């Protein structure tokens, strides 16, 4: 008999979680391979239909899982203002011009370029793994690359691969990394920040 439940626990990087039956009851284990629709990645609070099966140790698990309602709405792009890709293009040009005019050392655009490249590759691989139902790259890793300066590359990857761009919870953290990185960048343009950066770069040079 088909049952209805909510995905109340989900470890996306490991591909499994637990379903709480409608009306309460003991949680049921579910693996990513048990979902019929492999194109849509399971997300926390998804409403699903499923059959209950049992393994050799008589432990219950969900089989033939289908989605009923996706309770997490897609991000309303009309409320986001300028898209992250447009902001990334403007910011990249600003950094390049600032370095060209001598207001920033070349190490700064170099850092953004390297971090953006690695962020882009990470998104590309995560998208590929999602399509092939393989272990995913943790979202914390994607956010870390954005925080240290790779958010322009992340913006490009989100646009090109349509990856993570509609997940509200992910986008909230992603935009937070942009804000935090921007604060750090603005600080580098102040006299104290520029002095600290020069001191740091001088310490990295060989005598």
Descriptive terms for the model:
single chain; 207 residues; alpha+beta; OB fold (Dihydrolipoamide Acetyltransferase, E2P); 2 domains; 5 helices; 5 strands; 18% strand; elongated
Total domain count: 2
Estimate percent helicity.
Answer: 40-55%
Unreliable stretches, pLDDT < 50, 5 or more residues?
70-81
List how many beta strands DSSP finds. 5
- Overall mean pLDDT score? 84
Structural class: alpha+beta
N/C terminus separation: 75 Å
The strand line-up of the biggest sheet is: 3-2-1-4-5
Order of helix and strand elements from N to C terminus = EEEEEHHHHH
The largest pleated sheet is described as: 5 strands, antiparallel
Strand content: 15-25%
Shape: elongated
Taking all Cα atoms into account, the compactness measure Rg is: 22 Å
Number of helical stretches of at least 4 residues: 5
Short structural description:
This protein has 207 residues and is α+β, with helices and mostly antiparallel strands. It has helices at residues 84-100, 107-131, 139-161, 168-188, 191-204, and strands at 3-11, 16-21, 28-31, 47-54, 60-69.
Structural notes for this entry:
By secondary structure, the chain is an alpha+beta fold. It folds into 2 domains: 3-69, Nucleic acid-binding proteins (OB fold (Dihydrolipoamide Acetyltransferase, E2P)); 77-204, no CATH class. Helices cover 48% and strands 18% of the residues. It has helices spanning 84-100, 107-131, 139-161, 168-188, 191-204; strands at 3-11, 16-21, 28-31, 47-54, 60-69. A hairpin with a 6-residue loop joins strand 2 and strand 3 (28-31). Residues 70-81 have low confidence and may be disordered.
